[in-house]
Amino acid sequence: MVFSMFLAMGCSKTSGEGGKEATHAHDDGSGHGPHDGVLAPLSGGAGHAEIKLHDDKGDLEVWLAEDPKITRPIDLPLDTTVSITFKDKGGKVAALKVRNTKHNEDEDGTPNIREGKTNYFIYPGEGGESSEWLMGKDFRSKATLTVTSGGKTLTTEEFELTPHHH
User: Fold this and answer.
1) Structural domain boundaries enclosing 130
2) How far apart are alpha carbons 81 and 25 in whole angstroms?
3) Over 80: is that where the pLDDT of 4 sits?
4) Alpha helices per DSSP H over 35-165
5) Residue 66 · residue 47 · CB < 8 Å
6) Which helix (H) or strand (E) holds 35?
7) How many domains is the chain built from?
């Protein structure tokens, strides 16, 4: 199983530490997670990614977890690379990284570093990239997410990313 490869290279499974229970249910089949992002399964049954695009700033948040409720984080080294390729935007790629190496707080202020590892990644980061191309309530693109850590790679199947509206 692909998840076993990630465990072997230094990721840790945690049970609920810093993970959030779903606060509401989406029973409309929309495939949304507890943070109101789009859910996409990782290859080989390794887990799930929740991808949240904010329409007002064009920023992205990604949480990785074993389960679709995002309650059991897949914690990876802080130098893990997460990228999203946007098929309908000319193959443009957003490279997500940790917000910081101390707490790596999400936009709700929840710390996401456990034992020096995390399941939470953002774009844009400190590099000064412009996320203007992701802004707007009408943004829509088919996309794939890739996670690379310790020379191992996981991907999602293609999914449609639409923004969370504020």
Assistant:
1) 2-13+32-161
2) 30
3) no
4) none
5) yes
6) none
7) 1
Q: How far apart are the first and last CA of the chain?
A: 38
Tell me what the mean pLDDT of segment 128-135 comes to. 92
Does the pLDDT at position 27 exceed 80?
A: no
* CA–centroid distance for 83 within its chain: 9
Identify whether the C-beta of residue 26 lies closer than 8 Å to the C-beta of residue 139: no
pLDDT at 148 over 70: yes
- 19 within some domain: no
Q: What angle do CA 154, 67, 40 make, to 5 degrees?
A: 50
In this structure, is residue 45 part of a structural domain? Answer: yes
CA dihedral in degrees (127, 123, 43, 103; nearest 10)?
A: 90
The C-alpha atoms of residue 45 and residue 89 are separated, in whole angstroms, by 28
pLDDT by residue (tens digit) across 89-123?
A: 999 999 999 999 999 999 999 999 999 999 999 99
Beta bridge partners of 150: none
